[in-house]
């Protein structure tokens, strides 16, 4: 069969694939892609001699990591028809510019969702039960010396509010339910087949829950969706967890409220200006801090590699793409 | 008027408990006595102490029971009874009560938390940020939890609650217990080694008895392997701690999440320096909410005893 197929084909050069990334983000499956595509990497060392010319003909751009893809980038690479995202979030893409040019885009889809949901629960329960603080306590040798240890707060039975009931949010909900927690949510629109109570307004959601999990997409509408009013509504014993994007929360307000004890605690995997973390948080025992690692597992990496490779093949053979982002 | 009843409280437990006990009884605060004066303290008050409030970490042993000739009841603020000399109590006709159901959810929550914290390196990552190491580099990859094979030793109230939670993460559940549970949908393993061979995460959730001491021994640790993780929310003596520490140091075991230790509150020095363990000071049931429920049950049991009524949650 292979012989018959070969009769029709003259050897074609591998399709061009333009890599778009910050220098510090190196793509783990680059060697594999290089066996199937002519990968044009602007940060290649030494630089590819034909990069300036070839890049203008590339039909596909693979964006690895949070580097923005702007209108100017698309001007520079005028043949791009398809941008492959490698994150669940696509806030770094100028989607309006994509739409105008009819450029297709795919994201990480569900590839990371289990790991992020697991991590959201880990952070939330850690804040409530204070295990990171407890681990520090034991390692400091304080257990034999101090008889008492600050009590945590029971997880089971807490009211959990999910901001963004998408791929990650729905998995968070399922997990918390097994702990006997009740679930309520906020989303752009109410989900028709979902039985959890819906709140059209995040502040109302916050007023009615004990734990708020932020896992929605960052868009123009959701910048600082968690603002002072929302956090005040969550209250003195409320806990907030963010596994979305730092810019979803008014970070300055959050820090002030935590320092003043106006909010119970926070579990944060993302920050407004990573890797910078506001200094006052570094000494608080009612926060758990994490260096944007919710997706850093071998399984998530394998899943994104599979998705990206499969989508590239699909694109070049005119097959449907998975995890395509609709331009709505 | 009857002389006030003396109650010995071994550890502070909660302000609420102390408050409630003081309202009804004369409270003797054992933990406030310096170690070397404790024998004398007991001798001094032995003619008033008629009850001891024990807990999961410290309970009246034979020596303490012998020092208290008027002891009638031990009300334990715990589900576990291994720290109480039950044989001695039986011999003396001393009643013993405990708080069995108050902490099932709490401890199950803790088991899952320790698993996530160990497998996903949450505490280590928190330290990484606090020490400003994130400015230099991203954190390493850690192991996914969802979908892993979880093995539970002991499928009682707590074990079942753990299983229910782990299932929501897509984990497969296997268990070992003294006997197979007739209606369980989980896979039964007749031995802990067989369970460990098939599991990536092994959670100890059984009661401590003569049979279950060191139920996690070198063979079980070897079976679990270098990618395996052991979680202990039961009793320190369930695990051969010396073997555990060696295995962790040598990389023969992937990690451990421990809420209990053999000689708590002392921890082996080598353990304190490992980054593949999470340690907590026996706080599996230490929440504001549960402490209140447990305290109420302790007080209610004492009140029932001293007013001649039926005990609520007796053991003997």
UniProtKB/TrEMBL annotation, chain A:
Residues 121-294 form the D-isomer specific 2-hydroxyacid dehydrogenase NAD-binding domain. It holds the Pfam family 2-Hacid_dh. The keyword Nucleotide-binding does not apply. GO terms for cellular component: cytosol. It comes from the Eukaryota. Gene3D superfamilies: NAD(P)-binding Rossmann-like Domain. The keyword Oxidoreductase applies. Residues 53-325 form the D-isomer specific 2-hydroxyacid dehydrogenase catalytic domain. InterPro entries: D-isomer_2-hydroxyacid_DH (IPR050223), D-isomer_2_OHA_DH_cat_dom (IPR006139), D-isomer_DH_NAD-bd (IPR006140), NAD(P)-bd_dom_sf (IPR036291). Keywords: NAD, NADP, Oxidoreductase. GO terms for molecular function: glyoxylate reductase (NADPH) activity; hydroxypyruvate reductase [NAD(P)H] activity; NAD binding. PANTHER family: 2-HYDROXYACID DEHYDROGENASE-RELATED (PTHR10996), GLYOXYLATE_HYDROXYPYRUVATE REDUCTASE HPR3 (PTHR10996:SF268). Belongs to the D-isomer specific 2-hydroxyacid dehydrogenase family. This is Glyoxylate/hydroxypyruvate reductase HPR3.
UniProtKB/TrEMBL annotation, chain B:
Pfam families: 2-Hacid_dh, 2-Hacid_dh_C. Residues 7-315 form the D-isomer specific 2-hydroxyacid dehydrogenase catalytic domain. Keywords: NAD, NADP, Oxidoreductase. One of its GO terms (cellular component) is cytosol. Gene3D superfamilies: NAD(P)-binding Rossmann-like Domain (3.40.50.720). The keyword NADP applies. InterPro entries: D-isomer_2-hydroxyacid_DH, D-isomer_2_OHA_DH_cat_dom, D-isomer_DH_CS1, D-isomer_DH_NAD-bd, NAD(P)-bd_dom_sf. GO terms for molecular function: glyoxylate reductase (NADPH) activity; hydroxypyruvate reductase [NAD(P)H] activity; NAD binding. Signal peptide: none annotated. Residues 114-284 form the D-isomer specific 2-hydroxyacid dehydrogenase NAD-binding domain. Belongs to the D-isomer specific 2-hydroxyacid dehydrogenase family. This is Hydroxyphenylpyruvate reductase. It comes from Sesamum alatum.
């Amino acid at each position: 069969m292979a012989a018959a197929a070969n009769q029709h084909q003259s050897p074609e050069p591998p399709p061009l694939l333009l890599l778009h990334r910050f220098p510090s983000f190196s793509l783990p499956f680059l060697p594999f892609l290089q066996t199937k595509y002519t990968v044009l990497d602007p940060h290649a060392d030494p630089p590819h001699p034909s990069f300036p010319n070839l890049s203008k003909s590339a039909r596909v751009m693979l964006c690895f990591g949070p580097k923005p893809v702007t209108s100017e980038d698309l001007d520079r690479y005028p043949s791009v028809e398809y941008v492959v995202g490698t994150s669940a979030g696509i806030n770094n893409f100028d989607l309006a510019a994509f739409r105008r040019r009819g450029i297709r885009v795919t994201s990480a889809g569900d590839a990371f969702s289990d790991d992020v949901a697991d991590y959201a629960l880990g952070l939330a329960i850690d804040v409530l039960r204070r295990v990171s603080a407890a681990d520090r306590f034991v390692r400091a040798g304080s257990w034999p010396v101090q008889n008492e240890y600050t009590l945590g707060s029971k997880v089971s039975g807490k009211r959990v509010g999910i901001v963004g009931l998408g791929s990650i949010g729905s998995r968070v909900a399922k997990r918390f339910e097994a702990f006997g927690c009740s679930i309520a949510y906020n989303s752009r629109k109410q989900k028709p087949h979902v039985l959890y109570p819906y709140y059209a307004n995040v502040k109302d959601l916050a007023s009615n829950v004990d734990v708020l999990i932020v896992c929605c997409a960052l868009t123009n509408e959701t910048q600082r969706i968690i603002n002072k009013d929302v956090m005040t509504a969550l209250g003195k014993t409320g806990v907030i967890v963010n596994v979305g994007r730092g810019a979803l929360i008014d970070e300055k307000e959050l820090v002030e409220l935590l320092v003043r004890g106006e909010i119970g605690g926070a579990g944060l995997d993302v920050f407004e200006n990573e890797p910078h973390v506001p200094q006052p948080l570094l000494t608080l025992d009612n926060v758990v801090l994490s260096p944007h690692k919710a997706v850093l597992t071998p399984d998530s990496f394998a899943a994104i590699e599979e998705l990206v490779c499969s989508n590239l093949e699909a694109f070049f053979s005119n097959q449907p793409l998975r995890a395509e982002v609709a331009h709505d | 008027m009857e002389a006030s009843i003396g109650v010995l409280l071994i550890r502070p437990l909660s302000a609420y408990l102390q408050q409630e006990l003081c309202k009804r009884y004369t409270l003797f605060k054992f933990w406030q006595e310096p170690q070397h004066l404790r024998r004398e303290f007991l001798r001094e008050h032995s003619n008033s102490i008629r009850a001891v409030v024990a807990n999961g970490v410290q309970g009246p042993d034979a020596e303490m029971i012998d020092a208290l000739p008027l002891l009638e009841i031990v009300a334990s603020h715990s589900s576990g009874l291994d720290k109480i000399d039950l044989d001695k109590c039986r011999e003396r006709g001393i009643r013993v009560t405990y708080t069995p159901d108050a902490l099932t959810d709490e401890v199950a929550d803790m088991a899952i938390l320790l698993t996530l914290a160990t497998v996903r390196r949450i505490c280590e990552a928190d330290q990484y940020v606090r020490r400003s190491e994130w400015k230099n580099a991203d954190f390493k990859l850690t192991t996914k939890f969802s979908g892993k094979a979880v093995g539970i030793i002991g499928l009682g109230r707590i074990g079942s609650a753990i299983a229910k939670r782990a299932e929501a993460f897509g984990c497969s559940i296997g268990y070992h217990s003294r006997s197979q549970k007739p209606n369980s949908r989980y896979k039964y393993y007749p031995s802990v080694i067989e369970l460990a061979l098939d599991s990536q995460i092994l959670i100890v959730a059984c009661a401590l008895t003569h049979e279950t001491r060191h139920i996690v021994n070198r063979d079980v640790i070897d079976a679990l392997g270098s990618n395996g993780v052991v979680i202990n929310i039961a009793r320190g003596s369930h695990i051969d701690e010396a073997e555990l520490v060696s295995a962790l140091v040598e990389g023969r075991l992937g990690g451990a999440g421990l809420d209990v230790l053999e000689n708590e509150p002392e921890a082996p020095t080598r353990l304190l320096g490992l980054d593949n363990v999470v340690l907590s000071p026996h706080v599996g049931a230490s929440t504001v909410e549960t402490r209140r429920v447990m305290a109420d049950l302790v007080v209610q049991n004492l009140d029932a005893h001293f007013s001649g009524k039926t005990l609520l949650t007796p053991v003997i």
